[in-house]
Design goal:
152 residues; alpha/beta; 6 helices; 4 strands
């Protein structure tokens, strides 16, 4: 209708938008490599990944870690500079709507996007719900949630 045609570009998150798996990354940073490996040995393939990560976060927070520790663990998570260039190009030059569909979780994705000033590039993020409960522990739910990443 007289407007420029828009293009939808869909990204996964782990090992595509970022050069890492955000779940294992945070566990290794906070628990150490050996304990992270032990935690992963407890993954029961019958359970959902989100319920496994919920149990893993129980361990993280039972060891005294707080929300700020999780946030800080992502300070140096790798994102290839060319990926950032591609996001900017798609959004600013090519009139694209960028969306993330991921098996990660809302808190990890939003934290990493915010730390890298990328949140405004994405129209929506579809992923598992992660929220802090009244005890300050991150809970991960196997339910998918669509979150408007760019509030404007």
């Amino acid at each position: 209708e007289g407007g420029e045609e828009r293009v939808l570009v869909v990204f996964d998150f782990d090992w595509s938008l970022i050069d890492e798996n955000s779940d294992s990354y945070v566990l290794e940073k906070l628990l150490g490599k050996e304990r992270m490996k032990e935690v992963f040995k407890g993954y029961d393939e019958v359970e959902t990944w989100a319920s496994f990560m919920n149990r893993a976060m129980e361990e993280v927070f039972s060891r005294g870690f707080k929300q700020k520790d999780v946030v800080e663990s992502f300070n140096d998570i790798p994102i290839h500079p060319k990926m950032i260039e591609a996001l900017k190009y798609c959004k600013e030059k090519k009139n694209c709507d960028l969306v993330i569909i991921s098996g990660a979780n809302t808190f990890f994705i939003q934290t990493i996007l915010n730390k890298n000033n990328l949140q405004h590039y994405f129209l929506n993020v579809h992923t598992h719900i992660a929220e802090f409960d009244s005890n300050g522990r991150l809970t991960v739910s196997a339910h998918s949630q669509s979150v408007k990443s760019n509030p404007s």
